[in-house]
Design the sequence.
């Protein structure tokens, strides 16, 4: 699905030098590269504070912990997302309230969010799924009206730009009160292990988040609040410093692959190419097709026989996962989420464009549909 080896080969010298420097100065925890990466990333995103942490799931959990929510408070999140988004809500004794998504952008549907509001609703977590932004202008207006915190799950869309109706552009992850991202190796900005970060423009929240990620202490051995231990390794920060410089180039390469798929796969009956949101750039963390008529699994088996990898993100709505059933009444069902779980399939998309390989994938998909 990704070509991390090909990507590494091109930046090998710089990455190796960065890692070597960590080994030479043995500052494995909170070494200089962590602060340097933090600064670089703040500048890239145009955000006041980046707080690096151990992974994207921790980022979401720490963000949620910083909001002083009470057990039983409700947090809205899409039902069509990676488990981490809702998992941290439940872990903190809060109630994930799962909402539907739109069939075109796969992001949270802003049209009937009002239906989910109760006196206990305190926050909303839009997920910028597959690489493009949820409709943040509508989400921010909705949140303001109902006095909700907005935590963006930006694990899949780092580098994407959202454009407001007045023309103002912001990077995804810097629009809500807090943004979260993951540096898992296969993410668009991935390190060589686990990593994550939290973004905010709010000084007060930044102080609190930094404290929570560090055992609830501002001063060593004096603990103000219950926190956790969540740090970005110095070695991972050194890798990320190098890769951040290439992020826009990587997004462009992913777009090139996506456009090539678009050109060659559009107009095939039973197959729908991805829709690009009007107000967001797409960084194509995933290139995801919709396959109608119950043929998706058949297509996946066919591709597997031809040695073409593909993935189903995600095969089961969150509310049908055993761990989450307790949060919904029996028979709970969100129609778009249900349909997408049966129709989506993601194709390989990465930064090392190889036309021959992509032509092979395209020709086999055409064979499946047209022969
Ligand atoms: C990857 C991902 C996460 C979690 O990131 P980890 O670093 O693996 O903990 C959270 N949300 C979404 C939408 C993701 O894709």
Sequence:
């Amino acid at each position: 699905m990704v070509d991390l080896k090909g990507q590494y080969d091109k930046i090998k010298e710089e990455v190796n030098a960065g890692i070597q420097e960590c080994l030479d100065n043995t500052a494995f925890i909170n070494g200089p590269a962590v602060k340097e990466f933090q600064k670089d990333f703040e500048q890239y995103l145009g955000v006041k504070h980046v707080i690096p942490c151990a992974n994207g799931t921790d980022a979401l959990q720490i963000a949620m912990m910083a909001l002083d929510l009470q057990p039983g408070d409700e947090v809205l999140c899409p039902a069509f997302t990676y488990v981490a988004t809702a998992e941290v809500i439940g872990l903190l004794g809060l109630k994930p309230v799962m909402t539907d998504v739109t069939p075109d952008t796969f992001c949270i549907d802003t049209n009937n969010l009002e239906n989910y509001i109760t006196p206990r609703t305190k926050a909303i977590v839009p997920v910028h799924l597959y690489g493009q932004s949820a409709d943040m202008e509508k989400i921010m207006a909705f949140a303001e009206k109902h006095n909700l915190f907005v935590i963006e799950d930006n694990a899949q869309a780092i580098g994407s730009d959202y454009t407001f109706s007045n023309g103002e552009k912001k990077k995804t992850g810097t629009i809500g009160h807090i943004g979260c991202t993951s540096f898992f190796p296969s993410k668009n900005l991935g390190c060589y292990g686990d990593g994550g970060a939290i973004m905010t423009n709010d000084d007060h929240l930044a102080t609190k988040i930094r404290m929570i990620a560090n055992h609830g202490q501002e001063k060593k051995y004096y603990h103000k609040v219950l926190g956790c231990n969540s740090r970005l390794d110095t070695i991972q920060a050194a890798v990320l410093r190098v890769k951040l410089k290439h992020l826009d180039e990587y997004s462009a390469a992913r777009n090139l692959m996506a456009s090539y798929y678009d050109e060659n796969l559009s107009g095939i009956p039973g197959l729908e190419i991805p829709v690009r949101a009007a107000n967001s750039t797409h960084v194509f963390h995933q290139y995801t097709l919709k396959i109608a008529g119950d043929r998706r699994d058949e297509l996946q088996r066919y591709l597997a026989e031809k040695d073409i990898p593909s993935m189903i993100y995600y095969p089961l709505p969150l509310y049908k996962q055993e761990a989450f059933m307790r949060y919904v009444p029996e028979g709970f069902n969100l129609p778009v989420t249900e349909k997408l779980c049966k129709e989506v399939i993601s194709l390989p998309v990465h930064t090392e464009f190889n036309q021959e390989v992509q032509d092979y994938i395209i020709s086999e998909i055409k064979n499946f549909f047209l022969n």
About this structure: The pocket of pyridoxal-5'-phosphate is lined by residues 55-57, 81-82, 84-85, 127, 153, 155-156, 182, 184, 194, 196 (CB under 6 Å). The first helix runs from residue 4 to 25. The mean pLDDT is 97. Residues 151 and 178 are 5 Å apart (CA to CA).
